Amino acid sequence: MIHFEDEMPNAADLDGGCTAGSPDPVTAAHDASATDIRRTAMDLLARREHSQQELTDKLIRRFGCSPHIAPELARLRDEGLQSDVRFAEAYVHSRSQRLYGPSRIRMELRERRVSEEAIENALDASGIDWSQLLNDLVRRKFGRQPPADITERARRQRFIAYRGFNQFRLQDDMGAD
Fold this sequence. Notes:
By secondary structure, the chain is mostly helical. Among the domains are: 51 residues, Arc Repressor Mutant, subunit A (Orthogonal Bundle), CATH 1.10.10; 42 residues, Arc Repressor Mutant, subunit A (Orthogonal Bundle). Helices cover 57% and strands 0% of the residues. It contains 9 helices and no strands. Helix 2 crosses helix 4 and helix 6 runs antiparallel to helix 7. It is elongated and about 65 Å long. 25% of the residues are buried.
């Protein structure tokens, strides 16, 4: 795979070329110790929760194909310092505060390779009233006026689908109390 100068490869791109003894194309000169990897991972986790895959990608970008990455991440997970379940819960809360719906949040968590079980549990445990969240979003974006015509209605429907409310349908009096 060809990488441009300002584009960093992700773990999936590097994984195919990474073997225990092969030099890393990004940071071949840097030989990382397990302590360096653990310290960097803990620094990242101190800032915010990360999914296992996000942490792997960041560590590979920083340290290359080090054989110490997987064991250190497993150790952090076993010690409870990294948790995809905790990450999913924090992510659902954060994105719902920005008025994103369950479909969009689910898709974004899948992109971060969080398990389906963790995703569904986080969405269920959130206790969020998605209908109320949709109403807040519609009022904030469109005000209290119902759509003037079918074109406006379709535009609004596309917007709420984009925001992750695919399973919800606009009511005829959308925007009104």
